[in-house]
């Protein structure tokens, strides 16, 4: 099969959505090999449509601009399947994808005809009969409602209900190294969807249902997302910036312990950063996992870590992938091994200090 992947993420290769698209392509490849071409929209020169309708006053639909839309047109026409990889921006497509769609006016003839299901359309200039369209999108909220509907509707109107759609909330998780285990089941379903698509030309109802599952519950996701940002300004000193970063990363950490078998009485991990004079504790119980900064609320610890601020921030950032072009960097320390150790110490009724932290993952 001739497959065109239209990567419409303004983040290019760093796209969260691309993790899902790669899993889908892996699934397709089971019945391959296929010829896959990636069209990276953000790197292309595509002018805005001027609305001059020059294309509709020429017999062959020639546009006034001779830019990278010529390449897109050639690839689109030759493709048996077109996969749109895109984020949700302001509930719809990002501007670069909307612009690409606007520029496809020459794909259509000027005559207006009625649609069977209401409204009107312009027919394609050429036969697009068997072409399969797949929309793969991620978004940053954890819900579909009042969020992704405009994007879905756009694809329904443009490509009909035969267009397959994989829309995944909590999209940022897919770029975070530390959540590989949590995102794997979703990616396996996407892979299955790719296999079904290659075999049957559509995704089964059962797999479609599995593709609307979320990775995290709302509470955990909000804890992660809302402690993500490092807000500073010109007045913020380096030391203060480190403290803010460390606090945010530690506040996210309880989310990572969802599969640990904590007891009712909390397992206590104390974290101490002597150089920047910051200490806190994590109280990890079966019903509540919280970060405590007020020393009056401190409990006897099971595990105490003395850490260097730079080292902690480096380790925490390492798990997040590298986002050189944007603010989506920094993030989480993978602390499951620490939690296991603290649990074992709690079981034995002893405590321990660790003076060097090694990232052993
Ligand atoms: C300008 C902008 C607008 C966004 N709008 C929404 C939105 O309306 N709904 C949502 O759930 N996420 C929104 N997001 C979050 C992205 O959809 C999310 O981070 C997505 O996973 C990015 O995908 P990508 O890395 O493939 O580009 C927005 C992000 C940006 C930068």
SSE map:
Elements: E1 2-7, H1 17-29, E2 35-40, H2 69-78, E3 81-87, H3 95-102, E4 113-114, E5 120-121, E6 132-138, H4 149-159, E7 164-168, H5 180-200, H6 205-210, H7 218-226, H8 238-252, E8 267-273, E9 278-284, E10 289-292, E11 303-306, H9 309-318, H10 336-348, E12 352-354
Parallel strand pairs: 1-2, 1-3, 3-6, 6-7, 8-11, 11-12
Antiparallel strand pairs: 4-5, 8-9, 9-10
Helix pairs in contact: 1-5, 8-9
The structure holds flavin mononucleotide.
Explain what this protein looks like in three dimensions:
- The structure is a single chain.
- The protein has 361 residues and is of the alpha/beta class.
- It folds into two domains: 2-218, Flavodoxin domain (Rossmann fold, 3-Layer(aba) Sandwich); 233-354.
- It has helices at residues 17-29, 69-78, 95-102, 149-159, 180-200, 205-210, 218-226, 238-252, 309-318, 336-348; strands spanning 2-7, 35-40, 81-87, 113-114, 120-121, 132-138, 164-168, 267-273, 278-284, 289-292, 303-306, 352-354.
- The strands form three sheets. Strands 2-1-3-6-7 form a five-stranded parallel β-sheet, with helices on both faces. The chain has a five-stranded mixed β-sheet with strand order 10-9-8-11-12.
- α1 (17-29) crosses α5.
- Bound molecules: flavin mononucleotide.
- Flavin mononucleotide binds next to loops.
Concise summary:
The chain has 361 residues and is an alpha/beta fold. 32% of the residues lie in helices and 17% in strands. It has a 5-stranded parallel sheet, sandwiched between helices. Strands 10-9-8-11-12 form a 5-stranded mixed sheet. A two-stranded antiparallel ribbon has the order 4-5.
